[in-house]
Amino acid sequence: MGPFGRPGGAQWGATPAWTSPHGCGVCVETSKMSSHPQYICLTLLSSSITSAEDNWDIRGCVNLHWVTFFRCLCSLQDDVTVKEISITHHVKEGSEKADPRQFELRKVLGQGSFGKVFLVKKMTGPDAGQLYAMKVLKKATLKVRDRVRTKMERDILVEVNHPFIVKLHYAFQTEGKLYLILDFLRGGDLFTPSLAFILLDEEGHIKLTDFGLSKEAIDHENKAYSFCGTVEYMAPEVVNRRGHTHSADWWSYGVLMFEMLTGTLPFQGKDRKETMTMILKAKLGMPQFLSSEAQSLLRNLFKRNPSNRLGAGPDGVEEIKRHSFYATIDWNKLFRREIHPPFKPASGRPDDTFYFDPEFTAKTPKDSPGVPPSANAHQLFRGFSFVAITEEETQPVQSNNVSSIVQQLHRNTSQFSDAYELKEDIGVGSYSVCKRCISKSTGMEYAVKIISKAKRDPTEEVEILLRYGQHPNIITLKDVYDDGRSVYLVTELLKGGELLDKILRQKFFSEREASAVLYTITKTVEYLHVQGVVHRDLKPSNILYVDESGNPESIRICDFGFAKQLRAENGLLMTPCYTANFVAPEVLKKQGYDAACDIWSLGVLLYTMLTGFTPFANGPEDTPEEILARIGSGKFSLSGGYWNSVSTEAKDLVSKMLHVDPHQRLTAAQVLRHPWIIHRDQLPKYQLNRQDAPHLVKGAMAATYSALNRNVPPVLEPVTCSTLAQRRGVKKLTSTAL
């Protein structure tokens, strides 16, 4: 790893951890993706393979030495010879030569023994405004060995251009300092003392870093003799110092897989010496809950004779890629990042640092690297500490996570009232109130949703908005505050009003316009469903326009108070394509039912847009029992009256979206493929003949959703009427008679 880092054992950031999918412990201390070892490990493989599509071999540039990726203290003796290691400039293509004055310091992301890492913004050049991580090393604190590693790290990152490896954009030096300008990765890492080199971008794709101890261009004939790395990950030939080749990497790769699959390390003693002895001699204990394919792969990676190890043959990594454990993987799609990651980090604005330790982000950024510890200090350090950080405890999602997010947003314990001025009410609900507010610093108008923590835990809503609020048709979360009693969600102000209000007031409304509106909303819902999110409250009052234009592009879906993210049994967030082995069938069934409910709500909206009245309620005076009976029967009219002006294709879509059986109801993707949506440019432009009574429609719609959300109390009879009481009464009489 690189000669920079922060002390281990600290308390890190804002996202909960999860345990092994097999219930056998923590996969990695705070892993987000450890329930997906196949995805992680196959992506690591793709970072050290020749792309079948592009015929590009990273191994010609650098050996991705898995042993030396991990945090370590080298046992090599210090080189007392004083030498200066020159690090030449590296300039991003199309940009000018960089220097420190071109970067604005935004936040401190980490601090370690040799320097700091800052979040910076480029101020000049074609990439002005771009955010980077700036790693600053003070030359005076670097021994010759460390300077060599820094140069090696720089050289490797310059040479490598790979979708799963962190990119170096600029490298330069001043008289006293070295600067590396790298990708800023908001998404976090698989953080244990040994997995901090696997980073996540905002989409959940992994990237590798920490090349400070990697060996360049080791071939199968030559050997390296360095003894460094986390000892638990060392191959036997590294431990006994007899020289090692690429094959040592595949042993370490096996250790990584074993840890993510089981939550434990394959060889770990009470101390360093015992661990090394176990690596050389102990029998591998293979958990039987692992699949036969996983066991086979691990056994072939844990061969003590390097020449017998999978990946050591003439085909190299191709041997591993052909293994049955990876039988379902399309390696070209993986390389092109076309395989959806199983986890998407919660991140909002580009400069959000939710996963970074507030101990650092709260500091005023100054380019002044810290004093190094003693050379004899036995502390392990992170490599690039600009990576995102997560908590160490394995706790389920709780409301105090909102407080953690707030800490990341605000350097001090500022209150909502310090930054915003409250104005009039916009809407009032059962658990919250929405008000207009004005930023005291900018004068900009926003909306704030004030949620009572005593009534509802807003964590899920906050996480969903952070992850998906960047979608153009989902309301954008601007800020979060927590005063202990209430959580304040500051969002964009939707000035265009409710979708249904605007449509019903519109004198001229055609099928073509209705199709465009439904397409925009359904496309957004499909995006959420693909991510494993169901809204569960898609009533018309939660679909608004951001402005008065009335364009479909200005539609926003809001109020995610009842929304849910698909989670595995261990609490890990999932996307539907990764659910087979980790989500209970009843959870999947419930998620599918909720998704079908979203489509049903859109069907009600479409029905109302086309005719001007609702399918299951005639007006606000309808009773909940009447409405629920109609919904349960699945009967609604698609003929006569206002339906005479509606096309056959529109009626067909409505009937399939409102099907009483959720299993037969269309999915969002199927709605988007329906002819009425695909061929909307050919739909009639003439005005629909609709009921012109907006107040009745609004009342009927409110009555419909009120009936659906109504908790009907059970009808209780006297206790003596129960079967049990009657049976006991009979026994009592019999006993008395006796």
UniProtKB/TrEMBL annotation:
<keyword id="KW-0067">ATP-binding</keyword>
<feature type="domain" description="AGC-kinase C-terminal">
    <location>
        <begin position="327"/>
        <end position="396"/>
    </location>
</feature>
<feature type="binding site">
    <location>
        <begin position="109"/>
        <end position="117"/>
    </location>
    <ligand>
        <name>ATP</name>
    </ligand>
</feature>
<dbReference type="InterPro" id="IPR000719">
    <property type="entry name" value="Prot_kinase_dom"/>
</dbReference>
<dbReference type="InterPro" id="IPR011009">
    <property type="entry name" value="Kinase-like_dom_sf"/>
</dbReference>
<protein>
    <recommendedName>
        <fullName>Ribosomal protein S6 kinase</fullName>
        <ecNumber>2.7.11.1</ecNumber>
    </recommendedName>
</protein>
<dbReference type="InterPro" id="IPR016239">
    <property type="entry name" value="Ribosomal_S6_kinase_II"/>
</dbReference>
<feature type="domain" description="Protein kinase">
    <location>
        <begin position="420"/>
        <end position="677"/>
    </location>
</feature>
<dbReference type="Pfam" id="PF00069">
    <property type="entry name" value="Pkinase"/>
</dbReference>
<feature type="binding site">
    <location>
        <position position="135"/>
    </location>
    <ligand>
        <name>ATP</name>
    </ligand>
</feature>
<dbReference type="GO" id="GO:0000287">
    <property type="term" value="F:magnesium ion binding"/>
</dbReference>
<keyword id="KW-0547">Nucleotide-binding</keyword>
<feature type="binding site">
    <location>
        <position position="449"/>
    </location>
    <ligand>
        <name>ATP</name>
    </ligand>
</feature>
<keyword id="KW-0597">Phosphoprotein</keyword>
<dbReference type="GO" id="GO:0005524">
    <property type="term" value="F:ATP binding"/>
</dbReference>
<keyword id="KW-0808">Transferase</keyword>
<comment type="similarity">
    <text>Belongs to the protein kinase superfamily. AGC Ser/Thr protein kinase family. S6 kinase subfamily.</text>
</comment>
<dbReference type="InterPro" id="IPR000961">
    <property type="entry name" value="AGC-kinase_C"/>
</dbReference>
<dbReference type="InterPro" id="IPR041905">
    <property type="entry name" value="RPS6KA3_C"/>
</dbReference>
<keyword id="KW-0723">Serine/threonine-protein kinase</keyword>
<dbReference type="InterPro" id="IPR017892">
    <property type="entry name" value="Pkinase_C"/>
</dbReference>
<dbReference type="InterPro" id="IPR008271">
    <property type="entry name" value="Ser/Thr_kinase_AS"/>
</dbReference>
<dbReference type="InterPro" id="IPR017441">
    <property type="entry name" value="Protein_kinase_ATP_BS"/>
</dbReference>
<dbReference type="GO" id="GO:0035556">
    <property type="term" value="P:intracellular signal transduction"/>
</dbReference>
<dbReference type="Pfam" id="PF00433">
    <property type="entry name" value="Pkinase_C"/>
</dbReference>
<keyword id="KW-0418">Kinase</keyword>
<feature type="domain" description="Protein kinase">
    <location>
        <begin position="103"/>
        <end position="326"/>
    </location>
</feature>
<dbReference type="GO" id="GO:0004674">
    <property type="term" value="F:protein serine/threonine kinase activity"/>
</dbReference>
<feature type="binding site">
    <location>
        <begin position="426"/>
        <end position="434"/>
    </location>
    <ligand>
        <name>ATP</name>
    </ligand>
</feature>
<keyword id="KW-0677">Repeat</keyword>
